[in-house]
Amino acid sequence: MRTRDCGHIISGSSPAKGEAGKTGEWRTQRPVLNKDKCLAVKANKDICFQCWAFCPEGAIERKPGGPVDLEYCKGCGICAQVCPADAIQMESEYDSSEQNKNG
Ligand code: SF4
Ligand code: SF4
Prior knowledge:
By secondary structure, the chain is an alpha+beta fold. Helices cover 20% and strands 14% of the residues. It has a domain at 29-93: Alpha-Beta Plaits (2-Layer Sandwich). The protein is built from 4 helices and 4 strands; from the N terminus they run E-E-E-H-H-H-E-H.
């Protein structure tokens, strides 16, 4: 919660990287951006950023094509779900040979 100068309380939140600690070690999938589809990259402007706004870990940098900090990304896939351009795909951290080895 924040307050305005006039004293009114503002209900809202903003992403803060690292509040849940580093999550990269147990992530099983990672987001991969297709820059050809991303609205911000295509326009080269600060637009959209739904992925940034909804990432619960604050792991996405707020700039066109902004990289994901994989030390903090937990692989939840929310960014891929909210992207209006279907520009983010979740990919497994394990290749097929690793999956076969683990059953
Ligand atoms: S997969 Fe989840 S934690 Fe990782 S960047 Fe996307 S929304 Fe953030
Ligand atoms: S939500 Fe999708 S289109 Fe929008 S900035 Fe993120 S990746 Fe690009």
